[in-house]
Amino acid sequence: MLQLIDVNKTFNPGTVNENHAIKDFSVTINDNDYISVIGGNGAGKSTILNLISGGLIPDSGKILFDGSDVTHMPEHTRAKYIGRVFQDPMMGTAADMIIEENLALAFRRGKRRGLRWYITEKERQSYRDMLAELDLGLEDRLDSKIGLLSGGQRQAVTLLMATINDPALLLLDEHTAALDPKTAIKVMELSHKIIQEKHLTTLMVTHNMKDAITYGNRLIMLDKGRIVLDISGDEKSRLTVNELIERFSASSGGELSDDALLLS
């Protein structure tokens, strides 16, 4: 359902700070793939998500979405098909708006809207039911400002907003990295539950190698803008963290030195 073909992206070309971040990058993502993407700092993980979402335009190559060329399609047009949760819980929501207003904005994304702002009681009840599934007590706080929630609560609402319309593709950009360990586990479990129930095709960038092995049917490791490992099925389910580090070294020709990955 998604293909990147010979994609290249260079930042600051022709300067002393030139960085060829993505190099002849090709990958095919199938319907219902749940892919963990890992790699050290500067490997190109977030750049790939930005290229897919339309936040960045590649210098060369093609991006095909369900067979259609979207390489130069603007980000706001792709938003109808793509849900995204960022690392920072402050992103993806409007802090000064209440919970139900944030959910209403997400629900209306990509749909025709008039000047009238109105949330029906039926719609409000559906938001309560969705929030109740999170088991965080937020179903009784529809009129609370998002900015007053804890980081974990806010990230859970952001996850709900990103998936409210069953997007064709869900992008999770290290969405638990800024949370404390206990909250991160809760948000990760919620993510997995929603992905499985809605059968969402998902790309999840993570620094946590244990999560990368535990969740999803496929694991991709990046190094210097290229894929050095692409593991799926039984091969992935049998992996250990130590074996993953060893395979990275064998595939990349170097040792993994990213502290965040090693400490995870």
Please explain how this structure is put together.
The chain is α/β, with parallel strands linked by helices and 264 residues long. The chain folds into two domains: 2-81 and 169-263, P-loop containing nucleotide triphosphate hydrolases (Rossmann fold, 3-Layer(aba) Sandwich), CATH 3.40.50; 96-166, no CATH class. The protein has ten helices and ten strands. Strands 6-7-8-3-9-10 form a six-stranded mixed β-sheet, sandwiched between helices. Strands 2-1-4-5 form a four-stranded antiparallel β-sheet, with helices on one face. β1 (2-11) and β2 form a beta hairpin.
Mean pLDDT: 87
| Whole-number count of domains | 2
* Helix/sheet category: alpha/beta
- In the CATH hierarchy, what is the superfamily of the largest domain? P-loop containing nucleotide triphosphate hydrolases
Number of distinct beta strands = 10
In the CATH scheme, what's the topology name of the largest domain? Rossmann fold
**Largest β sheet strand count, sense and barrel closure:** 6 strands, mixed
Instruction: Identify low-pLDDT runs.
Output: none
- CATH architecture group name of the largest domain: 3-Layer(aba) Sandwich
CATH class of the largest domain: Alpha Beta
* Radius of gyration over all CA atoms, rounded: 19 Å
Biggest sheet strand line-up: 6-7-8-3-9-10
Helix content: 25-40%
Beta-strand share of residues:
15-25%
Total of DSSP H or I helical runs spanning 4+ residues: 10
